[in-house]
Every structure is written in C-alpha cells, then in structure tokens.
Amino acid sequence: MTQDSPNAPFASHERELARADRAVAELAAARRDRWYPAFHVASPGGWINDPNGLCFFGGRWHAFYQLHPFGSQWGPMHWGHASSADLAHWRTEPVALAPSLEAERAGVYSGSAVTGPDGLLYAFYTAHRWRNGSNEDEGNLEVQCLATSADGVRFEKRGVVVGNPENLRDFRDPKVWRQGDAWLMVVGRRSLDGRGEVVLYRSEDLLAWRPEGVLYRHPDPSVYMLECPDLFELEAPGGARRWVLCFSAMGARPDGYRFRNFNNAGYLVGTWRPGEPFSPEGDFRPLDWGQNFYAPQTLEAPDGRRILMGWMSPNGGPLPTQADGWCGQLTVPRELSLGADGALRCAPARELDALWDSARELGAVELGTNEELAVEQDLAVGCVDVTLDLGASTAERCGLKVHATADGGFTYVAYDDQTGRVVLDRQAARTGERGYRSAPVPAGALARGELTLRVLLDRGSVEVFVGDGEQALSAYSLPGDGPRAVSLVAEGGALRASRLAVRRQRP
Ligand code: FRU
Fold this sequence. Notes:
A hairpin with a 4-residue loop joins strand 32 (461-466) and strand 33. The model has no long low-confidence stretch (mean pLDDT 96). The protein has two helices and 35 strands. Helices cover 5% and strands 50% of the residues. The protein has helices at residues 13-29, 443-448; strands spanning 46-57, 60-68, 78-84, 91-97, 107-115, 121-132, 135-149, 156-162, 171-179, 182-190, 196-203, 209-217, 225-235, 241-250, 264-271, 279-280, 285-286, 294-300, 306-311, 326-327, 334-338, 344-348, 360-361, 365-367, 372-376, 382-389, 397-404, 411-416, 421-425, 436-440, 450-458, 461-466, 471-476, 485-491, 495-504. It has two domains: 13-351, Glycosyl hydrolase domain, family 43 (Tachylectin-2, Chain A, 5 Propeller); 356-504, Jelly Rolls (Sandwich), CATH 2.60.120. The strands form seven sheets. Strands 23, 24, 26, 31, 32, 33 and 35 form a seven-stranded antiparallel beta sheet that branches. It has a six-stranded antiparallel beta sheet with strand order 25-34-27-28-29-30, with no helix packed on it. It has a five-stranded mixed beta sheet with strand order 4-3-2-1-20, with helices on one face. By secondary structure, it is mainly beta. Beta-D-fructofuranose (FRU) binds next to strand 1, strand 5, strand 9, strand 13 and strand 18.
C-alpha cells in the first residue's frame, strides 16, 4: 500500500494545469463539430463526466466537470471549468484542478463548492489513488480534499480534510452545504459489508470535519455504492418542507422500465432532522428516464431556486464523438420543484429562453392515419413544443421525428397510447447507441387529455421534458451528414396537436 504522505506534492500544480490546458487546446484545434454541442456545457476537447462544484460565485454561474484532458477516453481526472453570466451561454475557463498531491495521484474526482464566510470559494473533491501504485486490482484509496479560490478560476490546494480511516474501497463525491449555523457534507461510500451508503459530516469552519454517521443505507443488497449524493430541502405546494436525497446507484438490476442504464441516478423524498438518518417516504424515482443521464448535482440559486445539471453519460454503446476529439456533455440546467403528488418536477431553467428566437407557431395541426407532416427541413439545434390532443387523437403512437437525415436515420419522441408512456426511441439511429427508454405520462395530462412535450435539440443530443416537467428523458442523438429534419407523425390512427411551435437558436 502507498505510504507517502497524502498531502505531499508529486508535481507542480501550475505545470500540470498548463499541460492540461495545452492538451485540451490541441484536441479542440483538430475537433470535428458535427455533434459538438451548440448550447450545452462540454469541454473544447477531451473526455468529461460528472458536473462538479456547481455554484453562483463572483456574479457568475460556474459549472466544473470531471475532465480527462489528454484524450477523448476516460482517464486521470481533472476539473474542467465553464462559467456563465446568464445560465444559458457558457464560456470555457482554464482547467481548475489537476492531480498534483500523492492522495490524488490517479485523479481529482467529483465534488462540490460553496462560498465561505471569508468570501473564498471552497471546492471539496475526492482525491483518488490506487492502493498499490498503478495496480487497480487492489482497489482505490479515496479521501476528501479542499481547494480554495479567490476568483473562482485559480485554486490553492489545502489538502485532505476527511480521511478514510476504515480503508473503504469506494468513498467519494463530497457535497457540502450550509445548514443553520453549521456546514454539512454528504459522501457516498461502499460500506465494509459491501452496501451502498451515504454518510454525513459536520463542520463549523469548513476545515475540521467530524463524522455524524450513516444518513442512508440502500435497502437493495445488490447496490454496492451510491455515487454523487446530494441532500436538500424543497417547499411542497401548501408550504410544507420536504427533504430530497439524490444519488447515483451502482449495481441495481433492471426492473421493468426502471434501472435500465448501466448505473442509475434518482431521488427519494422524505424527512430528515440533524442527528437522525434520512427517512424516505415513497419509492426511488428516476430524475431522468433517458439512456444518457447520470451523476447529477444541484445548487441553490441566489433567488432560492434549486438548479440541477447532470452528465449525459454513455450507456455501454459505441461513442462515435471520441473520433471527433471530444466525449461527453452536461444536460441543460433544470429547475427542480415539488409537485402536489410528492414527486419532483424538473423543467429547463427559465434562463434558457435567452437561447431562442421568437417561436414559429404552426397553430393546431391534424394528421390522418399514418400521415407525416414536414415541420422543418433542417433543425440541428432548436426547441420544439408540441401539445398533443389525446382526446381527439386515435394514433397508437404519435409525435416527432427529429434529427432525421437522408440516410434514413432519426430519433423518435412519441406518445405511446398502448403503454401510456412517452418514448425516446433511437432504433433508427445510424450512428451511436440504439434502444429506447420511456417515461410515464403524468396523471394530470391523462386527465386533461392533453400532453405537452418540450424537445431541446442540440447537434448531438435530445432532451425531452414532459408536461410541466413531471418527467424528463435525455439521450445522445448523432445524426448523419446533411440537413436534419423534423416531422410530426401519426402511426396506426389520426393525430391532433393543439399547438406546434419551433424556435431556433438566436444568432
Ligand atoms: C460518477 C463518478 C464519481 C467519481 C467520478 C470519477 O460518474 O464515478 O463517483 O467521483 O465519476 O470520474
């Protein structure tokens, strides 16, 4: 086992950051842009995964992310960085954290950021190394570290703040927040008996942390690790406050429509009081039903809204963007709220309206059985809103074909009347992963006989928001060359849409 002092530097942080920035710039210079996002956070080059350190600091929004700058595959992790004045348009900042201490020889892993009482930004992250040099077989040794920044861009490392005395194999992803007169931190871990747990720590000064025990232990013994935990309070309609515990569970087995991804991110709503474990009320629910969603993190906006961003994670399939010099993007920022049914609502942050030109309204549209209506000849990037009049429609499936190309490829966003679900289907994908996912149609939409879908199209992705944000589905969608068309289709019956509107990205 490595004996070196965890805080001892093995490299100059400045030099490692400069090397990482150069590597990203080289990949960016050779990048192909056919699927590179026009409005999502991504690195100009290299591989990214989880959002990290989401915060509003120094008058700007900051989204850090897990970054491997030296290639478009996963590799030793850094923190990449993007910032935004309006939560809609992002600019890339220099790489923020690179491995330079013994504890983090194999990577600076996920974490979070808060503004301290001294006005500095405190970034907490997991330092990751292999127990036995580079031999991964004996597992990892993970501890939690701190770095501080005066400007939100350049960080000073402050070393380990939470050790790993039990020598646990997986112990990572600190999420810190202010609770009353203390600071709290949740961390995910694999317990000694191999179970997924979230543990809690408390601090008065952000530097000295003491353990407060297990906040939540996953009841399913096949779940062995809870990554990226997040705990926050939301106001339910009527004013009562409820606690929401989010995590990304490793090891859950597919169960009908649920847990179909490699690993699965979701949440529990429940009660919690400091000093007590979290007590869930109701089931674990997905935060997003799509094939490409994982490791979300939230921040509290200055106006009190809870904003979430996730990683559009690959799900085992081919990753064609790697050949283009990049891989991975974050979802758009989403506003979370609690519905009267006790479930989360997740809608695109209202700030995203700044992305779009005024809508081209097509009015009400009717399609006969098996008809298809061309809506746009070429819409690689845009926002499409459709309201399906379920009462007046007889189609077995109806909805939008998007990113449809001359090679016959398309991605299908549809209401499926047989299952009562909204489908995001990539069976016609010519490139990348195939398969489909689906989300239940909200009860309110069924009762009203009216289902609204908002579809955000970027060059290589589709995000679908159902109803008032009752459900979301995210997936990569990698169309072939040439124009990328949108059409409205009715299968096995007729369709009436009471509204269809298209918005393009503002130049
Ligand atoms: C989740 C995760 C985290 C970890 C990071 C490493 O995707 O595995 O648990 O901190 O990614 O890149």
